[in-house]
Amino acid sequence: xxxxxxxxxxxxxxxxxxxxxxxxxxxxxxxxxxxxxxxxxxxxxxxxxxxxxxxxxxxxxxxxxxxxxxxxxxxxxxxxxxxxxxxxxxxxxxxxxxxxxxxxxxxxxxxxxxxxxxxxxxxxxxxxxxxxxxxxxxxxxxxxxxxxxxxxxxxxxxxxxxxxxxxxxxxxxxxxxxxxxxxxxxxxxxxxxxxxxxxxxxxxxxxxxxxxxxxxxxxxxxxxxxxxxxxxxxxxxxxxxxxxxxxxxxxxxxxxxxxxxxxxxxxxxxxxxxxxxxxxxxxxxxxxxxxxxxxxxxxxxxxxxxxxxxxxxxxxxxxxxxxxxxxxxxxxxxxxxxxxxxxxxxxxxxxxxxxxxxxxxxxxxxxxxxxxxxxx
Length: 376
Description:
This protein is mostly helical. It has 15 helices and no strands. It has helices spanning 5-33, 38-55, 59-65, 68-88, 92-120, 126-151, 157-175, 191-197, 199-225, 230-258, 260-274, 277-281, 287-312, 315-347, 351-375. Helix 4 runs antiparallel to helix 7 and helix 6 (126-151) runs antiparallel to helix 13 (287-312).
């Protein structure tokens, strides 16, 4: 059976997101049951973005030297082995090492899903293609907590879901035809140089990662500190991420209509203004529609950042930029989880929405200043 190119891209994005969406709250809940602090849980969660950060400078060279399809399949096989180890050997040190290695292995999967999408998109329609990939990924991010809420956190079964997802991804990617060759035989550009070329775009990635790592790991703990049972915390995550499925196509449409940078300013400002409402609404029934709308906004920021990437870069530059995206995702996740966890330990649970306000407010200001400078 021949698999269409975008089906393979969707499989890579969905697998990455489902594994993250399920494993982050799963490991956080288990570690809390073992008596670990929010700060330590944040440190544990930061191991995967640390692996992304460390491996990102080398990933463009790997996909330039070897077929990207083969690299992605091998990385998925490695991920299967790591989830088996984590499920069988449930120990904090084993998890730290395995989560770091997962970051290294998931980096090419994460990067090539985006590079292939932007390379497949016709000129002027990047917003629609990126929105489609983002929606698929958000289905994975939302599906992970939902599966966890339904099956519970005990036993090997939740790890088995991640393993099954990667096995399916291996089957789809290995049989796909027509995926773009993005290297064109050229030497890859420096990922670090791209940080200087596109600072706000990559800053938006770091903010999104910081929020996502903090929310996936600590929102269930925040809900528990407000009296909710563990499964309700997982459902809150599901609704939050699920809201982005509705917002993502709107974000893609905005990027095509009014420009990616202006869209980023509006979305980041909305997320910053909405964050404090979590404190007000968390113990009311209104938290459910609120968290769907507010949570949907944050991934729209990442969507418009990818649209801008597709508009400005192509070929080896696009590969290097996506490696830089991996670096900034790693930095954001590395800082976001532990910092937010430490703030919650020091100042109480309401430090969680306060940290999100600072993240999104800073991004909105930076994007607005950069847009003014470029239009001047």
